[in-house]
Structures are given as structure tokens and as C-alpha cells.
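Worked example 3 (structure in, sequence out).
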């Protein structure tokens, strides 16, 4: 057994197959991948990693299994999945996941190939576990896979509390101990016990508040856009393969970006925090449906058209379109008056938060600071935005600041 002091859960005891997995290169690599990608350029203390998060998920999984009375090999498999659930992440966590997916067809939770070989596979097999079974649990499959990946998973419980702790933003603070304690299995479905509608709502509310404040803060989104563009150029202009990119850590990727002439300027901007600025910050109602639903190739065509219209170089316009608002947690099951009900059928808060999500949604168009005016006007025309209010570079008196300037 190994005991580890954690900043969120205090002491975490790691034993069994999880202890053996702890020292494998694939798990240790997570020490070098930031949990929140480039969010440290907004919140300087957000330097926590996927490694400590994985320990937290393992710890909460252990507590959940104990509460549910799950023991033996079944519990061991879930503990292994909890420890390994993030080993498929590319550098900077979710930041370049779509880039990797377009080239490899794999998201971070598709880890069958990563578990089948190398030290991880050896450890699992030596402890009597099939790597494919563990990979299925990581993907949320089966009765106990819900505990690792689902509406009430311990992954979500840990990252909300951990991200709130390290950013200093209190909105993600939830009663994770109660959430774990109130879990139960009914007909192989993970649900919350009677009387826990407010408990489920707290998880929903925390996520809804952390999204615009941390996960989709406009500076974080700009940094993600730069890293995505840089990673695409790296694959196109260097000998880095998609498979190698997928297994890099943050330091590897940054070093490769710096060493490649076609991407070195992106690396400089990130390292010096000389970031692109918002040329457009448009509300959902001002953006045509075909832009909201555009695929990657269509977005690139829009960017090229905007660059041409604005008279700037190709590649200096980044369009950032979030997916349509969704609320996975709203399908959480809660026992009410002896019946299992979906949270969105029981809670009036769900409808209100869905409205808030739509109000918070923004399309971003980013460019170097000197080009934002030209790019903003060109984007308004090319994208067919319906209002001048989409432009953030409105004329204002010297020294005047707007709420859009916060955290710039």
C-alpha cells in the first residue's frame, strides 16, 4: 500500500492493481499534462495535472465501491479503470482532442490500444484482468462503468472540486462526499437515493457556473484556438505523426512547436502571453444555423474568406464555435417517492439552466490585436451575423473598460 497526501482529499491509500499501475510510464506521463490545458494563462494557480486528478478519481471510486458493497475482482477492475481513465489524453487535455480525433479516429476514452500493450497491459494481465474489460469500463460500459463515466461519475465529482480549488473559483465546490454516499444501484442503474434532488441539482449548477467562468473563459478559448491551429500546422509541416502527437505530453508538444519554423510564432505567443484578441463575440441568436452547425472543413473555408476580405494572412483568423449547449447531468436519475425519475423531469432548475446556457453561448472570431477591427467587420459580413452588437471592438473613450476586458 502507498499513502499519498492530496490537496483535495487529504490522504489517499493506493493498493492492489492500482498501486502497480501507479508507477507505469503511461500513468506517470499524466504528471506532465495540465488538467485545464491553457487555463493557467487566466488563473495562474491552475497548474494541477491529470495525474493528481486520476488519484482523486481512484479515491472516490474506492469510496463509492465500498458504499455500494462491491468487492473482489469487480471492485479491482473499477479501481484500475479509475486510475487509468485519463491515459488517452493528448497534450493539454481536451485542447487538441478534436485534432487528434480527425487524424486517428480516437477520443481520449478510446484506450483499448493503449491498454493492450506495454507495461499497463502487463500489469493488468499479471493481476488477472483483461485490458479490454478495463477499457470498456473507462468508456462507461456495463453496470459499474457508470461509476467511472456517466451522469453521476466520480470523474466529474473530482474535477469540479479540484478545478475550483486550484483556480480559486468557488462555483465548482460540491458536496462530493454526500454524492458518493447517496449512490445506489437499482436494476443495474446508478441513481441517487430518496431526498437527493437538491444534491443532484448542486452538481448541475456547479458545472453550469464553471463552464463560462473557467472551462470556456474567453482567454482560455483563445489559447485553445491557437494550440489547435499550431497542432494542425505541426502535423502538416513536420515529421510528427498523429500517433506521436497523441502520446506527447505538454512539454513535448511545446518543444516541437518551438522547434518547427511554421509553428514557432504560435509557441512564442503562448509563452509570452501575446495572445490573439476577440474580433467577434456573438450571441447564439445572432449567428446563422449553418455557422453553428458547420463542420471543420466549412469553418476553415469561412476563415479563409474572412482573411481575404480583411486583407490579412491566411491562418491569422481563428473561428471558435462551441457545440450546441448540452446538459448531460440533467439525465441523472433520482429516487422520488419510491420512483426513479430523471432530474430534468423533477427539477425546475434544469429548464432555467438550459436557458442560461443558451444566453451564455458565444461564437468567437480571433485575430492578432492590430487586425481585430478589419477581421471583425469581415467576419460579420462573411458569416452573416445579424447585428453589429457581435463586434467587440466598438469605439469607446480612451481608458474606458468594458466587462469584456476582464482577465485580458
Amino acid at each position: 500500500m502507498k499513502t499519498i497526501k492530496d490537496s483535495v482529499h487529504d490522504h489517499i491509500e493506493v493498493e492492489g492493481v492500482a498501486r502497480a499501475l501507479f508507477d507505469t510510464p503511461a500513468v506517470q506521463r499524466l504528471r506532465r499534462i495540465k488538467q485545464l490545458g491553457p487555463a493557467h494563462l487566466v488563473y495562474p494557480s491552475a497548474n494541477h495535472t491529470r495525474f493528481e486528478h486520476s488519484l482523486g478519481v481512484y479515491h472516490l471510486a474506492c469510496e463509492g465501491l465500498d458504499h455500494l458493497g462491491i468487492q473482489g475482482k469487480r471492485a479491482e477492475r473499477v479501481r484500475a479503470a479509475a486510475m487509468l481513465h485519463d491515459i488517452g489524453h493528448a497534450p493539454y487535455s481536451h485542447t487538441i482532442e478534436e485534432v487528434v480525433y480527425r487524424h486517428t479516429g480516437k477520443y481520449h476514452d478510446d484506450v483499448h490500444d493503449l491498454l493492450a500493450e506495454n507495461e499497463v497491459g502487463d500489469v493488468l494481465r499479471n493481476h488477472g484482468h483483461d485490458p479490454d474489460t478495463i477499457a470498456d469500463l473507462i468508456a462507461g460500459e456495463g453496470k459499474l462503468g457508470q461509476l467511472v463515466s456517466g451522469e453521476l461519475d466520480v470523474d466529474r465529482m473530482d474535477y469540479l472540486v479540484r478545478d475550483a480549488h486550484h483556480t480559486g473559483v468557488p462555483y465548482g465546490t460540491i458536496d462530493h462526499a454526500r454524492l458518493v454516499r447517496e449512490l445506489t444501484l437499482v436494476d443495474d442503474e446508478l441513481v441517487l437515493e430518496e431526498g437527493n434532488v437538491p444534491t443532484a441539482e448542486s452538481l448541475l449548477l456547479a458545472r453550469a457556473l464553471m463552464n463560462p467562468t473557467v472551462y470556456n473563459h474567453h482567454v482560455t478559448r483563445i489559447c485553445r484556438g491557437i494550440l489547435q491551429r499550431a497542432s494542425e500546422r505541426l502535423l502538416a509541416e513536420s515529421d510528427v505523426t498523429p500517433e506521436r502527437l497523441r502520446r506527447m505530453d505538454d512539454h513535448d508538444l511545446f518543444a516541437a512547436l518551438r522547434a518547427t519554423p511554421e509553428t514557432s510564432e504560435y509557441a512564442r505567443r503562448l509563452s509570452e502571453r501575446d495572445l490573439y484578441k476577440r474580433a467577434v463575440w456573438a450571441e447564439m441568436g445572432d449567428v446563422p444555423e449553418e455557422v453553428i452547425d458547420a463542420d471543420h472543413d466549412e469553418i476553415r473555408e469561412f476563415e479563409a474568406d474572412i482573411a481575404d476580405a480583411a486583407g490579412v494572412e491566411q491562418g491569422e483568423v481563428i473561428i471558435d464555435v462551441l457545440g450546441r449547449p448540452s446538459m448531460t447531468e440533467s439525465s441523472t436519475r433520482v429516487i422520488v417517492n419510491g420512483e426513479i425519475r430523471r432530474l430534468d423531469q423533477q427539477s425546475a432548475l434544469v429548464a432555467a439552466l438550459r436557458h442560461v446556457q443558451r444566453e451564455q453561448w458565444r461564437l468567437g472570431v480571433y485575430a492578432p490585436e492590430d487586425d481585430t477591427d478589419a477581421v471583425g467587420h469581415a467576419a460579420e459580413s462573411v458569416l452573416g451575423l445579424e447585428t453589429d452588437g457581435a463586434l467587440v471592438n466598438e469605439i469607446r473613450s480612451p481608458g474606458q473598460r468594458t466587462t469584456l476586458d476582464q482577465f485580458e
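Notes: Residues 218-237 form the longest helix (20 residues). Strands lie at 2-6, 10-14, 183-186, 189-192, 277-283, 318-321, 333-336, 339-342, 362-367.
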